[in-house]
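Form 7-S
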Amino acid sequence: MVARRRKAPRRRARKSFNISAIEAGTAISLAQSTGAANAVQQGLQGNITGGLKTLETSIMTNKSKIIGTLAAAFVGKALTRGFTGSTLAKLGPIRIKA
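Output:
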């Protein structure tokens, strides 16, 4: 008599995902401060040198704002590590966490 084969266990995809509010806010602020949108647009048009020059100019102009954003994000992350229930909002499958 032959032993029956076991079926492979089926795994379901998670129905929700988490977004860190601090990390998302930091990323948006840095993208705005560095002029990343203009640099990418110039790069996609074929002007890679101009895009890098735009990025360099924006970073040097806004370096104090960029450093402040990174410092605030670091402090925010350090403060929220102690909280266990750090969910700020939940909208359908999306959870916004601190």
